Amino acid sequence: FTQGGCLFTANDDKQMNSHHEWLATAKDFELDTRIIQKEELEQQIGSSASRWLGAMYTASDARAEPHKATPAIARAASREGAIILTACAVRGIESAAGNVSSVVTEHGTIETTTVLCAAGAWTSYFCRSLGIQVPQLRVRGTVVRTAPAAEIMAGNLFDDKIGIRRRQDGGYTVAHGSSLDHGLTPATFRFAFKFLPALMQEIKILRLSIGGDFFHELALPKRWALDAETEFERVRVLNPDPNPRVLKGIRKNLDEVFPQLANVPLVESWAGMVETSPDVVPMIGEVGDVSGFYIATGFSGHGFGMGPGAGKALAAMLTGVDNSIDLEPFRLSRFYDGSPIRPMSTI
């Protein structure tokens, strides 16, 4: 965990005004976010700052390495008594007298009265088998890692062309600033109306296509037997290939925005499926007609950063401990009770 600050740059007055408007939200949550001008931005990132008017800057923001933080959190949970089962797909849940009674896995049944489904991009499909409609779509993000290079910034920066952060190994993790892939599926059309505001917001960066994903999802069963292999075992991890066109765009934009890194090799690339909700805000709470079944999903690409805080709030919710975080705004029913759907962030 390294505090290096986070910069959201502004290319023009419209973006700068938008950042100014967000300061009120930052103040509500007691963040140290402020607007910095080009001169101070140059102190942060050097000569590359000349392309921007300024930025919104949060000095207390930090970064961590997912491949280190995730197992570290798991080890800490184990020390506190948690039992973590890996390579063990959940097939479904069983209920008795209107309450959860057990979780059925590929290796056997676990008796319990409380279940939290935090299955990421799988959540909507899993819940649909229980008669619960969770509006959720997937987008693919492509990312690269550079070889170790000179330090041009200590923290993170987001711009229309690039998203970049310093890594502990001395390199940088880099993403395209305005490119996400969405393969159209039956879920796209099923939830189209609810996602329309988000689609209009992200229309310039979403690359829509239709192909094998559509027909694969179309062929999936809506319900399945719990004593036989399921889709969750056949596809254990959503691990899509990176988009070659986006990789070329990342290389081009990195060289343009930070010429100092023009000769630094891109040594690794990968892609991930980001699951999102219609308003780009998580869905958290008890759902469905079976008492004791909860969901936590729709983190929309921000789950790693929000994970520790969300986990603390979820633990309180599940155990009945007093919780200082009001989870009512995250209820699934907001998408069905007439509440206006307004995207609160970007993916």
Question: What's the quick description here?
Answer:
This protein has 347 residues and is α+β, with helices and mostly antiparallel strands.
Keywords:
single chain; 347 residues; alpha+beta; D-Amino Acid Oxidase, Chain A, domain 2; FAD/NAD(P)-binding domain; 2 domains; eight-stranded mixed sheet; three-stranded antiparallel sheet; 18 strands; 30% helix
Your description of this structure?
With 347 residues, the chain is an alpha+beta fold. It has 2 domains: 1-63, D-Amino Acid Oxidase, Chain A, domain 2; 64-335, FAD/NAD(P)-binding domain, CATH 3.50.50. The protein is 30% helix and 26% strand. The protein contains 10 helices and 18 strands. The two termini are 23 Å apart.
How many DSSP E strands? Answer: 18
- Using the coordinates shown, work out and report the CATH topology of the largest domain: FAD/NAD(P)-binding domain
- Global shape: globular
Largest sheet: 8 strands, mixed
- The helix-and-strand class reads alpha+beta
| Mean pLDDT reading | 93
Q: Unreliable segments (pLDDT under 50, ≥5 consecutive)?
A: none
Percent in strands: 25-35%
In what order do the strands lie side by side in the largest sheet?
Answer: 3-4-2-11-12-13-10-16
What is the CATH class of the largest domain?
A: Alpha Beta
Rg, Cα atoms, Å: 21 Å
CATH architecture annotation of the largest domain: 3-Layer(bba) Sandwich
